[in-house]
Amino acid sequence: MNNAQARVILDTIADMFPDAHCELNHSNPFELTIAVLLSAQCTDETVNKVTATLFSKYRKPEDYLAVPLEELEQDIRRIGLYRNKAKNIQALCAILLDKYDGEVPQEHEKLVELPGVGRKTANVVVSNAFGVPAIAVDTHVERVSKRLGFAAHKDSVLEVEKKLMKRVPREEWTDTHHRLIFFGRYHCKAQNPKCGECPLLDLCREGKKRMKTNSSRKPIPKAKSSKTATV
Description:
Blueprint: H1 3-16, H2 29-38, H3 44-57, H4 61-65, H5 69-75, H6 82-99, H7 108-111, H8 119-130, H9 139-148, H10 157-167, H11 173-186, H12 205-216
Helix pairs in contact: 1-11, 2-8, 5-6, 9-11
């Protein structure tokens, strides 16, 4: 991929999803951190259903520490890996109170030290809560980046992030992150991508391969109906 092709891809996805945004419901950096922590191996839709009641019950770190772990587990039971996530939430809240006066730190290097907060979560928080340009690579961003040639299929998540950061202008990192997610979630899906109507098909090796494979499949002939002989 050259720079001109990368620019076409970025502009096309921007036209397709001009309003792409973080779909996790939140009202402050703390809620966003909890929501992204919960979203690991879980859909944003499910997380939003859980946090609709969770965020009315727990408003600050002290609230999460005021209940037994088992109660918090029950509150997020619909979320995958809920036991481990509940434990991480309470440990995270204890650190916020102990080291940061109950506030979520803005620095990436401090965020990744919090329990349950990896590089992807930290990137989401700094970009959406604090306006720091970042590209968080989730399953959608990774899949789309590899299909469109921003990264190689063998690349790790970190390598995908670094290659995107090189190709995408820094001021577009956050918007591109959201647009790639929307493109992967609603168009270039894992199982049934909309290759036939994709404006980027000519730049997508996998898409062209899929279309060629589908067109080469011969339709199964219908069985001829046999007429019953009359006596």
